[in-house]
Design brief:
Keywords: Coiled coil. By secondary structure, this protein is mainly alpha-helical. It contains 6 helices and no strands. About 75% of the residues lie in helices and about 0% in strands. The radius of gyration is 33 Å and the shape is elongated.
């Protein structure tokens, strides 16, 4: 898109579409700030105001925390979301129980192997530092 493609009547200047196109050309650096000002007869202040407007209305919701809070608040109130969380919690508890039993089984196997073969398998706490 070129700056010359934009209309220059007073009605279009106030339209959201016109502002958005001007700022997108400016942000994409398809035309320099000077070219935009000269061809559309826009002051530097007006271009900056359009840029701020664009940021406020088009981009800010994606950067602000309130956008993410709104989406998470919807999820928190949803009953199916709560059920899914409860299901995940039960699965995590089952997995935790399995892992504890597995660790206990490994400890027992290591103790039996140490007793039968009479060799230390586990490292003792406080390993020696290499001597210089």
């Amino acid at each position: 898109m070129n700056v010359n493609d934009l209309q220059r009547n007073k009605k279009s200047r106030r339209s959201v579409l016109f502002k958005r196109k001007v700022v997108e050309i400016y942000r994409a650096e398809l035309s320099s700030q000077f070219e935009i000002q000269q061809s559309l007869h826009i002051s530097q202040t007006e271009l900056r105001q359009m840029n701020r407007w664009y940021f406020k209305h088009r981009l800010r919701p994606y950067f602000s925390l309130s956008f993410y809070n709104r989406t998470t608040m919807k999820k928190k109130t949803d009953a199916s979301y709560l059920k899914a969380l409860e299901k995940r919690l039960l699965e995590a508890e089952k997995e935790n129980k399995f892992l504890r039993l597995k660790a206990e089984a490994y400890e027992i196997v290591i103790q039996i192997a140490e007793e039968e073969f009479k060799i230390p398998i586990l490292k003792k706490p406080g390993a020696q530092q290499p001597k210089n």
